[in-house]
Amino acid sequence: NCRLYFYYSMYGSGIDSLNIYTNSSGLLKLMWSKTGDHGRTWKHGVATLTVKTSYTIIFEGIRGHNDKGDIAIDDISLSDECFAPSCTMEQFTCSDGDCVSQQQRCDWNNDCSD
C-alpha cells in the first residue's frame, strides 16, 4: 500500500483538528485525522492512501474557538508504492497506471481495471 509519512505538531488549547484528504477527480476522501492538543513534541504520522488513480494530497488545519494553539507539519514523504510503474514500449498504460500488452489494446475486452 502507498503510505504518506510526516511529522506533525498540535499544541495549545485552540486546536481543533488536522486532516489529510486525497482528491481524485473532485472526490475528497479523508485518509487521516487528529483532534485536540497533542503536547509540545513532534509526533510521527502515517496515512495509508488507497487511491489508484492520480490524486492530490490536501492537508487541512482547523483552529478551535480561540487563537491559542499551533498546528505544523514537516518532513513529508511518500513510500515507493505510491509511484506507478513505468510501462515498456510494448505495453499500453491504463488510466489507473496499470500496464497491459499493446496487443490487448482495442481487442474488445476490458483489459484495464479502470
Largest sheet: 3 strands, antiparallel
Task: Name the poorly predicted regions.
Answer: none
Strand order of the largest sheet: 4-1-6
Q: DSSP strand (E) fraction?
A: over 45%
Separation of the first and last Cα atoms: 18 Å
| Averaged pLDDT | 88
Overview in brief:
The protein is mostly beta strands and 114 residues long. The protein contains no helices and 8 strands. The strands form 3 sheets. It has a 3-stranded antiparallel β-sheet, with no helix packed on it. It has a 3-stranded antiparallel β-sheet with strand order 3-2-5, with no helix packed on it. The protein has a two-stranded antiparallel sheet with strand order 7-8.
Provide structural commentary.
The relative contact order is 0.28. With 114 residues, the protein is mostly beta strands. The protein starts with a strand and ends in a 13-residue tail after the last strand. The protein has a three-stranded antiparallel β-sheet with strand order 4-1-6, with no helix packed on it. It has a three-stranded antiparallel β-sheet with strand order 3-2-5, with no helix packed on it. Strands 7-8 form a two-stranded antiparallel sheet. It has strands spanning 2-12, 15-24, 27-35, 43-49, 56-63, 69-78, 91-93, 99-101.
